[in-house]
Amino acid sequence: MAKEKVILAYSGGLDTTAIIPWLKENFDYEVVCVCIDCGQEEELDGLEERAVSCGASKLYILDVVDEFCDEYVVPCVQAHAVYENKYLLGTSMARPLIAKKLVEVARKEGAVAICHGATGKGNDQIRFELGIKALAPDIKIIAAWRNDKWTLDSRESEIEYCRQHGINLPFSADSSYSRDRNLWHISHEGLELEDPALEPNYKHLLVLGKTPEDAPDVPTTVTMTFEAGVPKSVNGKEMKVSDIIRTLNKLGGENGIGIVDIVENRVVGMKSRGVYETPGGTILYEAHQQLEELILDRDTYTMKKDMGNKFADIVYEGKWFTPLREAEQAFIESTQKYVTGEVTFKLYKGNIIKAGTKSPYSLYNESIASFKTGDLYDHHDAEGFINLFGLSSKVRAMKMQEVANNK
Amino acid sequence: MAKEKVILAYSGGLDTTAIIPWLKENFDYEVVCVCIDCGQEEELDGLEERAVSCGASKLYILDVVDEFCDEYVVPCVQAHAVYENKYLLGTSMARPLIAKKLVEVARKEGAVAICHGATGKGNDQIRFELGIKALAPDIKIIAAWRNDKWTLDSRESEIEYCRQHGINLPFSADSSYSRDRNLWHISHEGLELEDPALEPNYKHLLVLGKTPEDAPDVPTTVTMTFEAGVPKSVNGKEMKVSDIIRTLNKLGGENGIGIVDIVENRVVGMKSRGVYETPGGTILYEAHQQLEELILDRDTYTMKKDMGNKFADIVYEGKWFTPLREAEQAFIESTQKYVTGEVTFKLYKGNIIKAGTKSPYSLYNESIASFKTGDLYDHHDAEGFINLFGLSSKVRAMKMQEVANNK
Amino acid sequence: MAKEKVILAYSGGLDTTAIIPWLKENFDYEVVCVCIDCGQEEELDGLEERAVSCGASKLYILDVVDEFCDEYVVPCVQAHAVYENKYLLGTSMARPLIAKKLVEVARKEGAVAICHGATGKGNDQIRFELGIKALAPDIKIIAAWRNDKWTLDSRESEIEYCRQHGINLPFSADSSYSRDRNLWHISHEGLELEDPALEPNYKHLLVLGKTPEDAPDVPTTVTMTFEAGVPKSVNGKEMKVSDIIRTLNKLGGENGIGIVDIVENRVVGMKSRGVYETPGGTILYEAHQQLEELILDRDTYTMKKDMGNKFADIVYEGKWFTPLREAEQAFIESTQKYVTGEVTFKLYKGNIIKAGTKSPYSLYNESIASFKTGDLYDHHDAEGFINLFGLSSKVRAMKMQEVANNK
Amino acid sequence: MAKEKVILAYSGGLDTTAIIPWLKENFDYEVVCVCIDCGQEEELDGLEERAVSCGASKLYILDVVDEFCDEYVVPCVQAHAVYENKYLLGTSMARPLIAKKLVEVARKEGAVAICHGATGKGNDQIRFELGIKALAPDIKIIAAWRNDKWTLDSRESEIEYCRQHGINLPFSADSSYSRDRNLWHISHEGLELEDPALEPNYKHLLVLGKTPEDAPDVPTTVTMTFEAGVPKSVNGKEMKVSDIIRTLNKLGGENGIGIVDIVENRVVGMKSRGVYETPGGTILYEAHQQLEELILDRDTYTMKKDMGNKFADIVYEGKWFTPLREAEQAFIESTQKYVTGEVTFKLYKGNIIKAGTKSPYSLYNESIASFKTGDLYDHHDAEGFINLFGLSSKVRAMKMQEVANNK
């Protein structure tokens, strides 16, 4: 009888490589590896041989970069979703898509289980597992690092375990920062970052760009367009969203844009400290917002800001495949209908400096805003407005005087 | 019989100077001028002579800088109050205090009216008048520029009107940017800013600092402390809040910090475009937030962020003297009890770069956050947590499968 | 040359009848009357003759009851939109539709102005005018009662004015309650209600139903179904929404359901006191909510409740034709996809008593909820859940102990 | 050497009685029982003998009814805290106080552990444990029913286990509804309630009152006063809060007030169905709200409603001893300063019918609200107000026309 199959989220790194023999040994599964490419820019050549040589029956490599950008990144840009004022959600955005793809392969392969190598302290275990539960409630989830049968607690022990199972790959026993990368961002944790009193060692840490100090001494001017809230072009060239992000990553990285150092609250109740690089994303968020400044009325702006924060929270929590995320996204999308126009800005040593914004749907009206009185705005209206806007304050003050006088 | 008195909010500039004879001519009031010093750094010497020579019976000059900082700025810093993601509320914070002081003088003088020179298109008229209504509902408000008897619609006509009333002062007929300054910030409106498609002419515009391009090529390191959410020292020196702001304004201004270019939604329903300089304030907000990252738990952080936005909205709207502002401030203050610690950062060409944060009340716990399993955190707990955190998603997915199967 | 036309929102009552000659006399317009039937159940026969005999060039009678129910009432039911905990928004829902129809007729007739007879103290002027501004910003709005040319300040003076202009209709000079009625509700203001210390005189006041005291001594059982949040049937009979409301109005009215006595905050800054009868609507809201209890997960329920309150606020404020209303409605609609099922309840003397709820999409799972341990829920999971749910509290408490010990 | 001590939350019922020998057998602890009286109206006489005869070293009986009412109930009344639109939080309010008292006794006794008998599926385990973690992070928590050493899964097995340990008490093997009672409310779960399609068997179920059907045919009129948001008297008699609740429980119970049938979302991710009786509480909430209708301005009312919902959520979640609860309560308390006045209402068969409300701080102003124009309110102000309130809508509509015309 054929063995039951498990789908393993596979990166080619030491952790997920060691899981292959561990799954076979402890669960007697056939192991199908899946490597999902969200733009991590790693060497994927030779990955299939590696997986198979380590005991997997096959490896899927799925390039989902465009789906990632169009279906996961763009809604976050439109929401201006920022977690705890700073984090642009790079890892959070990708996890549900990975879960979805794992489930798709599991269905195709008729697998009974999905295994991931996320740690038991982090948010990613939640994001993977909530995604799988929502899409395939019948599939068993194996979180290798939380499993009682998992006894490997260091890189050395993992390397030794691999060796015992005939896997001799040139993994280094030295750990560096713990990183997660995709087209949108790279995150860094560990080493000196574990002490919030220490400054990050940016020279060693940065991958996608330079520090502001090392960035060029002259600004780079960039122009972007959006249509209905979707980025459409950079510097006059129409591109798909993924290419826009690639272009902005390069420009932003060179100019020291989008480096964030944060102590954040994880879903599991602890604080962690990380550094994020999101060069292109930071530009995209800012450019989109500059356009919204022109286009959204005050009520919509205020509530959308609030909604963006709520959206960030649930994306961070891994609640992508939920009715609430759908409802919030429906709200956001409804506000984007007229977010169309052009934004110009200069990138200079960590700064994104506005250099002009235009939209056919701009609510900015020079004749109203200027100091002269025009047709559309009568100074007298302000009198009535203020009288009613402040009416309850005045009535209240009169009441208080009355009560005071009666005493 | 003595004439009734009007209190005039007086700056010494052309607009409020022209109002003195206008009030006497049109209302037959005795005009008592009040100049309220929130740190605008203008020449106040000779102001009394000017006011009196223009027809005022006297001039009060009130230095309220410390009250401004302690009672109005600090609550906004603690709230991290930012209007529409960018504006640090410099003008908004000062207006209610000015209203309060005008009322105090009005009571002392037994005045029946208060007059201000704010335009009929702006937010300041609202802030002044809501303040006065809430504190002195019986006092008549005269908004000169909205008054039907006010016919002067240019600087030239104001100068001519002054001249006709025997006032020959060296006012220039050329208008520059429209500005509002206090210790916290300076705002700029008008000229090229009236077209959002144009880049601000920073060379002419900036008052408190330099652009990032013109800032020094080497970073400046700064250390600050807070106690219970109140700034206490800079670089090891204890100072009162106003001196901390002065110090940070200098440091921030030199390093190109805190320049904001925004199209914002005014309360009166229009959009306007302005540039704000808030060098010290921007540092203070960021430093305070870095500390809160260490100290506030996730629930509190999330809701406080929301509350800060709401606080910003009502401060912007001029609703300072309202039960809602008091209630929101009570919430914020309650969260500040343990916001105590030290923050270090580097200022460099527009960037505030974190360089270490410490607090005795830090909830960051290295042994929990690190990748090793420790006493306080058991990996197995995550399993249970995720199972319940995702329970409704799983039940829902099962239900959907059941419905699908029944069809 | 043909006269310019004005569209008059016409009810046939004294107020709007007097406006016909007033408009002709003061503006020299051709007056086109429009009576919009949202289910007010008034005598519309003979209305055209009345309008024309009073000087109108014609009268449109538009039956919009179904559009009202489907496009305005249903979204509010789905939102569970209640203003200030009590008011089911009956008047607020209808005003934007009326504004829309007035604009449609104005466009068809090529009119340059629209006139309404709402008072200068109420919310309805806002709702009419915001609707017109949003749909036809170029059309002039005439609010008769706020107009300086309007000098009639009592029913007597209106009757006299009509008489002078050849209109002799049997209007009574005695004023009763001020009322607004449509299919959804009737509101009552004025007379004894103007003193919140007085009990409403329900015997004279009620129109749509009885008091609980006068309701039958035996309960009436009702069953309803919903599909995707839309009411579909009552007691087994499929009906369009308007007929469902008619049916429930009858059942609810007889059983003393949906009488509300409230002091509410108007948009214009004052408090007013009113009594509302919404017999069918109250049932519909409650039935819909009972179904949502079964179907919505906790996160969605919580945020939808909040959104419903926000939706109520903007509907109350007359901001129907705004991007924010559209966005909020998109959120709400997204949550309604699975709000399908059957609700049974008993009506008894003002009470709606639940008597059973069923849905194919119910997330209630007896085996999970019961006291026995089942497959889907492992008691051990709760341990992990609580440990992480309370982790920050515990860490905080430890930190406080540590600080205390260090002192 | 003396044994280590465990504190057991003891009710005298079968479950917690069986835990006494279980704790001694499995943990070798000295068992100190604590019975905390929040007004459950059970027979506490003889409880000490029972506890001791079952193996406890002693029993504390703590009457905390007044602390419960003053420190836990009143803040919830002021917040108008209602969970998921219906549940008045009776159990949720009491749990943190119980946790606090358990910790106090634990400190006094020098105990190392606290044990409770709440089920592994419910909310109460969370509320107890979060309270203990926040107040005594060093104390071990034993949740008997979740413990692997606990093998008793039915009342029969518990009775048998007791017998084996020499405890022969007249416990019935038949289970009734699962109930929780205190002065504020009683909850019912189980039996027919486990199927939401079934009507509750009210005849057997109700404890604190009658159904509306069984209530008297004549209304009972009640008058209450509040001072600064705190209930002070009923029908002219000043009483402490607990006595007010007792009085209202009697009046409300007799008149069929405060029976709620709900399917609610538990914190642990499941739905459960319960019936709550909160006769006095329902009256108190409604009376308090009627007063707030008169006193709170619109902004404060709106935000306080939102805050009340958030307060309800965290109280439900057991997060009483958190900075967030303190901050929310600070907000609420700030709004209560002027919630002073008198409320009259009639209780009639499940209905609370308003019969007049008065307050010295009422913002209701008859001369403003009435249809006549008075001093304080000028109809013309409404014109200006509406023009600015709708300005962005109008500008937007003009812009859309412009874009349409350009196509």
Automatic annotation (TrEMBL), chains A, B, C, D:
Question: Which GO biological process categories is it annotated with?
Answer: argininosuccinate metabolic process; L-arginine biosynthetic process; urea cycle
* Catalytic activity, EC: 6.3.4.5
Which residues are noted in the entry as L-aspartate-binding? Answer: 119, 123-124
Q: Which reaction does it catalyse?
A: L-citrulline + L-aspartate + ATP = 2-(N(omega)-L-arginino)succinate + AMP + diphosphate + H(+)
Taxonomically, which superkingdom? Bacteria
GO cellular component labels: cytoplasm
Q: Which residues bind ATP?
A: 9-17, 117
Name the enzyme group at the top EC level.
ligase
- Ranges for domain Arginosuccinate synthase-like N-terminal: 5-167
Q: Where in the cell is it found?
A: Cytoplasm
Q: In which pathway does it act?
A: Amino-acid biosynthesis; L-arginine biosynthesis; L-arginine from L-ornithine and carbamoyl phosphate: step 2/3
Residues that hold L-citrulline according to the record: 87, 92, 123, 127, 178, 187, 264, 276
Which keywords has UniProt assigned to this entry? Amino-acid biosynthesis, Arginine biosynthesis, ATP-binding, Cytoplasm, Ligase, Nucleotide-binding
- InterPro entries recorded for this chain? Arginosuc_syn_C, Arginosuc_syn_N, Arginosuc_synth, Arginosuc_synth_CS, Arginosuc_synth_type_1_subfam, AS_cat/multimer_dom_body, Rossmann-like_a/b/a_fold
> Which Pfam families does this one have?
Arginosuc_syn_C, Arginosuc_synth
Family according to the record: Belongs to the argininosuccinate synthase family. Type 1 subfamily.
Among HAMAP family, the record links this protein to: Arg_succ_synth_type1
Binding partners and assembly: Homotetramer.
What is the protein's name according to its record?
Argininosuccinate synthase
Q: What is the originating organism of this protein?
A: Butyrivibrio hungatei
